[in-house]
Amino acid sequence: MSVIREEAEVIRGLFDEGGAEKGYHVRYRTALDLVDAEGVSFSPDLVDPSLRGMAKQCYKNAGSFALFDDPARFVYVEGFAVLAGIPLSIAHAWVYDLKEDRALEVTWETPGAEYLGIPLDTEWFRAWILLRNCWGVLDSPAILRNDADPEKYFHKKFRTAKQ
Description:
Number of helices: 7
Strand content: 15-25%
Radius of gyration: 15 Å
Structural class: alpha+beta
Strand order of the largest sheet: 1-6-3-4-5-2
């Protein structure tokens, strides 16, 4: 079992033991729960070092690729990754290159050992960023609610892959 999926299971167990109030109207209790249920596995290659963004700015780095570098080519992916040798998931973002049909690590100097994330529709992502004026999506209660529709935010290339 993957590190990311094991952590999601542990957290779900904590909620099931009384950690969540009754009537809590969410489809997913945490971003990790959402990514475990809806996420796609990736094995990113490193982007050319001259294109890599600043350390600890993964949401901005990946978002800039997807929104400014070439929106028709790059898909913003947000989820969780695991560094080699450290069995703990980290909230992270990377991109998927539609032209080359591969994921790219745009922040870390070494690719992680595991990636599980939600590829976001570019126009939906653009509207989200403009509305909220901050990078990062999955930690918002709005994306976890019962009425949040993955069909609206999930990138079309990956929607068919999930079915």
